[in-house]
Amino acid sequence: MRIGIVCYPTFGGSGVLATELGKALANKNHQVHFITYQQPVRLNEFNANIFYHEVRVPTYPLFDYPPYETALASTMVDVIANNDLDLLHVHYAIPHASAAYMAKKILEKQGKYIPVITTLHGTDITLVGKDKTYAPVVTFSINESDAITAVSHNLRTETFRSFKIEKEIDVIQNFVDVNRFRKKPIDAFRRVIAPEGERILLHASNFRKVKRVADVVKIFARVNKEIPSKLLLVGDGPERPYAESLCRELNVMEHTRFVGKQEQMEDILAISDLFLLTSEYESFGLAALEAMAAGIPIISTNAGGLPEVNISGNTGYMSEVGDVEDMSKNALSILRDNNTLLKFRQNATTQAMKFDIGTIVPQYEALYNRFL
Ligand code: GMT
């Protein structure tokens, strides 16, 4: 098949998922055309079946807001027509679904039919999408998609609750390549972070408000009082300055490292002992799934689709949003002795296997086949 993939190229979960999907499809001999405004961060290897088309948005003194969506729709038309694509798969509704609708209509006039599949990822529905500034366009363009998928059962429910959706939404959950994340720790790296063999706690996100990164720091401060430990914070975003000042206020800065945006998550995960995900909402929690694939237990909230991923008392624990006390207690209960940690580690890997790339990617292929 010749497939167009449109996504955000940044470190966000939707872009990561879309890029990993494209890579997996290319490995299965499909021809994959990425259409984005920048090289996606996970698109870091050469594959003869992968093509990359950059959306250029010319500036003009008249524009306070350069019309990105128009440039995107025009690029879609160009790529689809010139490469005779079979279908277009857009990730994150805004503005990809509406740009895809525009491209589809233009191509229809030229006698080319292109099915559009829209995958909903989370904040495109739960936060940004339902804002009335965007809602009418989001509702319309989701309904105009030939197929709609959501990355969790929870997100499917939320979408029906928030929008007047006239079609079925298929749930195809996030996936992970378990083999890739099953890596041996690099001892020298672990010694740099935790020279005395301290436990390593990890959080990775884009530091937006929805992630409640302050709760991560508060949990760590409590854990650190009881057991020797270090905190690794991966990623960057608007809440980072606040997280830093909280680390100083709670006297844990010397045990905390902000390592910024990282591409080699496998190496970081391989040296970590516990993953903290304190989000107010997570449609699925791809970062947690990748951690579990690396055999790391999860301390998370029970928000959104997280209960579909993290099994409380088995792969980690879940608490109410903001219940820092409970999350700290649970973290300590896992980290205190090696046998407990090992048991949770094994359970995490077993659970991650359910979402292995080999199980989930064929679900997308089956969906595509419905349109050929
Ligand atoms: O929240 C993020 O880190 C980014 C966001 C996105 O859309 O780029 O991630 C969402 O999509 C991921 C992949 O499907 C999900 O695993 C995340 O749970 C979801 N984030 C939220 O719902 C907040």
What keywords describe this structure?
6-stranded parallel sheet; 13 strands; 7-stranded parallel sheet; single chain; binds ligand GMT; alpha/beta; Rossmann fold; 15 helices; globular
Plain-language structure description:
This protein is of the alpha/beta class. The chain has two domains: 2-175 and 356-369, Glycogen Phosphorylase B (Rossmann fold, 3-Layer(aba) Sandwich), CATH 3.40.50.2000; 178-353, Glycogen Phosphorylase B (Rossmann fold, 3-Layer(aba) Sandwich). The chain contains 15 helices and 13 strands. The strands form two sheets. It has a seven-stranded parallel β-sheet with strand order 3-2-1-4-5-6-7, sandwiched between helices. A six-stranded parallel β-sheet has the order 10-9-8-11-12-13, sandwiched between helices. The longest helix has 17 residues, at 93-109. The termini are close together. The structure holds ligand GMT. The site of ligand GMT has 21 residues, from helix 1.
Low-confidence stretches: none
Mean pLDDT: 96
Number of helices: 15
The CATH topology of the largest domain turns out to be Rossmann fold
CATH superfamily of the largest domain: Glycogen Phosphorylase B
Number of domains: 2
Biggest sheet layout = 7 strands, parallel
Topology:
Elements: E1 2-6, H1 13-27, E2 31-36, E3 50-54, H2 68-83, E4 87-91, H3 93-109, E5 116-120, H4 123-126, H5 135-144, E6 147-150, H6 153-162, E7 169-171, H7 178-181, H8 187-193, E8 199-204, H9 213-226, E9 229-234, H10 240-249, E10 256-260, H11 265-270, E11 274-277, H12 286-293, E12 298-301, E13 316-319, H13 324-335, H14 338-353, H15 357-369
Parallel strand pairs: 1-2, 1-4, 2-3, 4-5, 5-6, 6-7, 8-9, 8-11, 9-10, 11-12, 12-13
Helix pairs in contact: 2-3, 3-5, 9-10, 9-13, 12-14
The chain binds ligand GMT.
